[in-house]
Amino acid sequence: MKVLYYFRNDFRLKDNSLLNEALLNATEITFIAKAPSERWGLWRQKFQWESLLNLKTQLLSRGHDLIILNLVPSETLELYDVLYTPLHNTHYERREVASLSSKIKVISYWTDRLLKTPPSGIQNLPDIYTEFRKQVELDFQPLQPLTTPTKWPIQKDWPLSSIEGPIFPKNDFRSAFPFEGGEEAALERLHSYTHGTNAIQSYKKTRNELVGTEYSTKFSPWLSLGCISPNYIFHFVEEYENNVKKNQDTYWVKFELWWREYFRWVFEKYPQSYFTLEGIKNIALDLEENSSLFQKWCNANTGDDFVDANMLELRKTGFMSNRGRQNVASFLIKDLKINWQWGAEYFENQLIDYDVYSNWGNWQYIAGIGNDPRPNRYFNTQKQASMYDKDGAFRRLWNS
């Protein structure tokens, strides 16, 4: 069987059930992926290009290639019997798969979830994360991660040339995320954060810090592109707990993986309201569309030194801490009274770890129209700065 494999947010060879199935069934195979959109911010483009090139290198070592394209040309689909591509259930991706399905048989399913379905089903999914977490933790056991097959079908030649990525600037020396994209870098970071530095043993205590590489796992950029699977991380952490040390800090890494999982199922429950101004709670907000104020927020020119430091970090690196994201989002919505959708779209453009489900779910959460059980959550940015940047090191690092 002649197989076309289309990588989309699954840029890995390990623990990739769809890829394993494609390799098993193919007599000839071609691998393709789309280049990052030029509409995205510089750092998001850079990280995805690095991930694609690492995937290409791994495939070349196995006698195959990765053809990187701007668009999947429909006229080439007739050369194949079936197309495999991971499921990604938002509107644009569904339209793309529907279009491909009109020309070729498509096999597509999730490759980046911990659960096949929530314990209570999608329609009965709790609207509070804690209730969901308690349900799934009762009897969840991660799957044994799949190994990469050793026998590969022959490569079927692709009639068009692969495009090449641009040359990007080096990372800012101040960056809390100086790492490269790609599966190999993801696996290296997982080992480093656990068995290398044992930083995982203090994760819950340090996760709200702002400076440096070790205050948090930094797994999210690789997870967002599928350079590593959540199942692989979950299983790896449990092995670490069994063989090295288990405490509240190691547990909290799994806690955060369940948050990521939860937002995926919230989208499945509320696909129509996940992106609307009123959110899944259908609450009308008194927000404005003041482009001047919004640009000051984007350009780190609000006059709030804590907000500006975080926004400058985002613009210069494509990364921001979780604590920073909560503060700048709250400031935009609660202080500037600006449409939260604008902030979500800006993050979509800039973040190297952009994940449609987590990004939009978290913005709704802060706006009070999502899964937050507290209706009027507010982050006083100066109080937050005094708690999490007591000596001003983070603000000096970015505002000086």
What this model shows, in words?
With 400 residues, the chain is an alpha/beta fold. It has three domains: 2-107, Rossmann fold (3-Layer(aba) Sandwich); 114-142 and 182-269, Serine Threonine Protein Phosphatase 5, Tetratricopeptide repeat (Alpha Horseshoe), CATH 1.25.40.80; 291-399, DNA Cyclobutane Dipyrimidine Photolyase, subunit A, domain 3. The protein has helices at residues 17-25, 42-60, 91-101, 129-136, 183-196, 203-206, 220-224, 230-243, 248-269, 291-298, 305-317, 322-335, 340-350, 356-367, 381-388, 393-399; strands spanning 2-7, 28-34, 66-69, 82-84, 105-107, 154-155. Helix 9 crosses helix 14 (356-367), helix 11 (305-317) crosses helix 16 (393-399) and helix 12 (322-335) crosses helix 14. The protein starts with a strand and ends with a helix.
Features of the shown structure:
400 residues, alpha/beta, DNA Cyclobutane Dipyrimidine Photolyase, subunit A, domain 3, 6-stranded parallel beta sheet, 45% helix
Task: Offer a concise description of the structure.
This protein has 400 residues and is an alpha/beta fold.
Could you say how many structural domains there are in total? 3
What do the pLDDT scores average to?
Answer: 96
Please identify the structural class as seen in this structure: alpha/beta
Instruction: Tell the overall outline.
Output: globular
Number of strands: 6
Indicate the proportion of strand residues.
5-15%
Oligomer: single chain
Total DSSP helices: 16
Give Rg in angstroms.
21 Å
Major sheet details? 6 strands, parallel
Low-confidence segments: none
In CATH's first tier, which class of the largest domain applies? Mainly Alpha
CATH fold-level label of the largest domain? Serine Threonine Protein Phosphatase 5, Tetratricopeptide repeat
- The N- to C-terminal Cα distance equals 60 Å
CATH architecture of the largest domain: Alpha Horseshoe
